[in-house]
Amino acid sequence: MDQAILVGLAYRTTYEETLESLIELEHLALALDIETKEKVIQQAKSISPKYYIGSGKMLEIKQMIEVLDADLVIFDDTLSPAQLKNLEKDLDVQVIDRSFLILSIFALRAKTKEAVLEVSLAQKMYLLPRLIGMRSSLSRQGGGSYNAKGPGETKLELDRRKLEMEISNIRRELEKVKAEKQISRQKRLKNHIPVVALVGYTNAGKSSLMNSLSERLNHDSEPVLEKDMLFATLDTKAKRLQKENHPPFILIDTVGFVNKLPHELIRSFESTLSDVVQADLLIHVADGCYFNPMHIETTKRVLSEIGASNIERLLVLTKKEIAHSYPN
Question: What domains sit in the chain, N to C, each tagged with a CATH number?
């Protein structure tokens, strides 16, 4: 298991909020079998264009790498190409950011053709402006250090022109998928079947709710994957449900959201997220046992980004332990 140092910057956030984000980053890293050795937080009034953190903190982390024998350093925010290049050079260890980590988890979870294409597109869009900065990081992936299925899987991807060509090809493939989904959507509209989409933070219980509703409505289809893990569901699942003496409806289980979701991922997942945008009702699922207002706001922010904020939204708290406060 690889050993990592996590780094967060308390910039426009409190120390407590930054620590909470690092704890989530620790869980994300664990999903790729990366163990956290230490968490580092710097409080700052501005972001360093060279290292993201201050030069003094960078030197402090360099010493920690030697003492803790860490394999890599993970930053909780997206690094610029220049910051990535400078950190790799001066820390002399693999450096990745939260976006890279999330994209790698998505690549690991993707199963269907649509999800694989969307993740691959997001990875290449992320990598394109970072080819120089990530050159040494990607070369380490074949040598025993962090080796998840990520953007650096092949060294040929370092060719910018090849990357641009691959991005174009994937977009064409996704257009075909989008056209096929549009045909299915038109059939639903023709039959006047309403669509209900489950949305919410990752691991909030969307798949569990879908299975519970299917069971209550005596739907005999195979249950969707229900597992206590981040991003267990990447591929959209749809079921036609009907209560006795009531009209049918389509229930859709969608990909979960997370704080600081990479913009490349949101843009590339246009096909999958179109199920949310076209829904008649959104069931916003939140974990009632470990209720976190930030999870609610993150979901609402992503819904706004994809143009789904105007769709009627019903908040549902999962688990038996119901939260003491109820958000709007």
Answer: 1-98 (3.40.50.11060), 191-318 (3.40.50.300)
